[in-house]
Write a structure and sequence with these properties.
Layout: E1 3-5, E2 11-13, H1 17-40, H2 45-62, H3 64-77, H4 83-109, H5 112-118, E3 119-123, H6 127-130, E4 135-138, H7 145-154, E5 160-164, H8 170-180, E6 186-190, H9 196-203, E7 208-210, E8 221-226, E9 229-234, H10 236-243, E10 247-255, E11 262-266, H11 278-295
Parallel strand pairs: 3-11, 4-7, 4-10, 5-6, 5-7
Antiparallel strand pairs: 1-2, 8-9, 10-11
Amino acid sequence: MGQEASAGGAARPAHGGAPGLRQALANAGARLLLALFWAVQWLPLSLQSALGRALGRLLHRFGRSRRRVAEINVALCLPELDEAARAALVREHFEWLGRSLVERALLWYAPRARLERLIHVEGDIGLAERSQRPVMWLVPHFLAVDVAGAATQLFQRARVCNIYTAQSNPVMDAALKRGRGRFGLADMFTRQEGARPMVRAIRRGQPFFNPSDMDFGLRDAAFVPFFGQPAATLLAPSRLARSLDMIVQPVVGELLPGGQGFRVRFLEPWADWPTDDAEADAKRMNAWIESEIRRNAAQYLWVHKRFKTRPPGAAPLY
């Protein structure tokens, strides 16, 4: 099986053998990386932090394409900074980015008791388990977004539904689902599945962990200002919250310096959101995210192509 005889009688790989080999090598590489993650999580957090910063400096130096994305985003969003300040912010961002990658090992593998000591929660995390109405946690893509997800399973009892983008590598996809749901309170739905399974979970009363501030194109989205730039922004959070009579509670994760751990802030629910104007709601959501970025600019996900989708006739930015 898997080989064919050539005209001269020698065996040669069947059609598709090379792609199969590439996939096997990719899977082996993913398993090796996960084994490294498992080992790293035993290190003191201060040492993990130092390793993460070192990784971030390497990514900044050699990850030219993503560095360029971050530079463009920062220049567009924070034009009040001079060139030196923007460059310093991007360098700092990559150090935090490296930390977030290394410290994901903790979230996926560390004992529960250790995470409970390291994740510091502020605000009303118990709203979802008390509420008679379903709750949407609106969570912008700061580098500790996965820490916020872990907090929703560690410090409250309501079963959570979460949405994520399926990974192309099956080993990493399985690891991501297992890591994000390992405390038994998360139902993971892929964006590729569509909204129906998630809506059914919300109707059962599950709070919805919703990181919705990325550029997913113009499907169910509109161009809404983000730091004054037209950004393809999902209208689905407002429409979903309105159709299911949800309470919307903003949540922000933060990496703390050195070995201090993480902070997750569960903010006051928005009393007047959603409205019957989904585009106006998207503008308000972006304005709130802007205010949080100004509070902690280096930890926002600047390496994401936030302005990838462009208005008709506008030139590509990346």
